Each structure stands twice: as structure tokens, then as C-alpha cells.
Amino acid sequence: MSTESEPKSFEEQVEDIYQQYRHKKLESRLEEIAETMEETILQQVLAEEFLQASIEIDQEAKEAVQDARHHLENNDYEELNSIIDTVEELVEDQERRVSNKIHEERISMNSMVNGMQRLNSRVERVSEAKIEAIDELLDNWDWKGHVYRGEDTNLEARKSNAAEFGRDMRRFFEEARDDIFGPYEGTPIEPIVDDLLSDDRLYLDSLSDDQIEELRESDLESYVKLSLS
Q1: Is 94 part of any domain?
Q2: pLDDT tens per residue, range 30-69
Q3: How far apart are alpha carbons 83 and 80 in whole angstroms?
Q4: Number of structural domains, the chain?
């Protein structure tokens, strides 16, 4: 008695091919969703350290990705297919919300950094390259090369990289800010420096005698003349 199974019909072979294609498509789609979730988490970590921004990611989105992966590992493609639209919507919503918040914080911080660049061009207290590195990150948000390192292949290692990079860039920013603003802290012209950084126009009649005298003796005199004109 033969134990060999009957050869599959042409229709059955076609169905097998279709199911394999369908499964691969689901796997690929889930991989993209998981990648988006990971990048969102890494940007959150970086932004909290560098921008000092408080950003939360809903636990529901993280758990949904984990649940989807569990179905894939168990070859439960029918269940995965039934939930993947919802998982994708949750992750995309979190990615959009986190990106929008980061964008707002970058614009706010970039305004100060641009003011620092203008002021530093006059007083020359900080390496221009240091401020440009901060400005470039704020403008382009090109962070992946600093976080996705060849030897680090798991999320926790990449989160550590993101936190480290964020702390380094925050330190650069704070050092530059302190070097540029330090000499004016506690002096009558400290408010003027704040206005210069925010691009507010100065009016001579709004300055006190002490402020005018302090400006004349400072390295800001020529810069302030431009702002007053």
C-alpha cells in the first residue's frame, strides 16, 4: 500500500503560491510598521535628552506591535491579517504626534540657536563648528547615523545610543549658551541680550542710562547699533 500523498492539483498549487505571497506581504507590512514604531521610540528618547521635551508614546501602540509579532511567530496569519490595519493606524498616529511635537520644539530651540550664531559672530566666544552642529541637527533632524550603529542590533542598545547622542548635543548647546551669555548674566544688559536673541527690535528710548552705559563698555556696542538702526 502506497503512503505517498496524492500530487496536488494545479488549482491547489496556485492556492499555495497565493498564500505564500499573502504571508510574505503581511510579514513585510508588519516589518515596516515595527520599524516605524522603533524609530518613533528612538526619536522620543533623543528629543527628551536634547530638546528637554516631555513626550509620551501610548502603551497601546507598543503592545499592539508586540501582539502582531506574536501572531507572526505562531504562523497565525489569519489573526494577523485581521488586526494589522488597526496596528498600523495606532503606530502611524503615534509617529505623527511625536514628529509634530519634535518639530515644534526644534523650531523653538532653533530660534535661540540662530540668535546665538548672530551674537557669536560679533563676540566670537564659541567655536562656530559647535553651534553649526547643533543648528544642523535642528534643521535636518539627521539622527539615524548616530543611533543605528553596526554593532548595535537591538532596541535597548539603540535607545542607549539615542540617549547618549541627545545628552552630548544638549551639552554642546548649554556650553555654547553659557559661554556666549555668561558675561551678561546679572548685568543691566541681560534683558537686551534676550531681546537680541529673539529678534525683537531695540528702541533707544526704552533703554535705561545704566543699560546704555553698559552697552558702550561691552563688546555688543557695534552689534546693538545695527539693531537700533
Answers
A1: yes
A2: 999 999 999 999 999 999 999 999 999 999 999 999 999 9
A3: 5
A4: 2
